[in-house]
């Protein structure tokens, strides 16, 4: 065999080795994609329970009690929430963090023939609870989670409001603006657009709020101005002049209400707008306070905050892409740019 033929065979072997290497890389990538797809399908099937309320098997009259895990509950949405947040990134952690955000709930017409009838007299309340389903969460619930205010320390999931739960159900207290037909308009939003609504309940201070908290975490007496709206349907208000309250009873109520110290650990950041960002906000006629409310409470997760200290951060809100830079040393965040998506 001549030298030229040997070199030709070596060249072909080299090409074959490269092709084999490329095929191995493609197989690894396909395996990775396949695993991700399987995990997503499992999570979707496990979370898929919005098809009417039913019990998996009818309970027959019997002396045998059902086992603890024999029941399966399926819920159907009564409507969907429409908000300015198209993605989970930078969504406020609580509704009152950005209480100026205007949102709405659109009730489904196949739940009630006349859905507006179900909303009669709701406008007599100033606030209401929204109970909803975390439809964008990939199910990876754990018994302990790390709330952002604890900087990595873990606590039991039932001692937090983490969205990653065995049953991914959320609840938010919002301020009612007005009702038009079967659409409810409200202020304050911590939900992604098109979040399915499970239920709506009026906020009644007498039952829902033992006492109000001030900004520094100390307790203050319940706001008297909300008293006029706290009576539930079918229950008459009592004349306060005939219902005296003792100071000792009030002090007892204050002593009964407590929260962990870390709940009140919420230092706010100073939000700075560059001249370029201010010009773009004015050009697009966007609400500057909305961006400020989102950023001053630091929407980053503990993982992002610790791994990418003082990093460039972007998020989408109301069709705009907001680009900013955090300065964790000085406790500031500068909005650099606001662009239309």
TrEMBL record:
The keyword S-adenosyl-L-methionine applies. PROSITE patterns: TSAA_2. Residues 75-212 form the TsaA-like domain. Residues 226-253 are annotated as: Disordered. This is CLUMA_CG009020, isoform B. It comes from the Eukaryota. Residues 240-252 have a biased composition (Low complexity). Belongs to the tRNA methyltransferase O family. It comes from Clunio marinus.
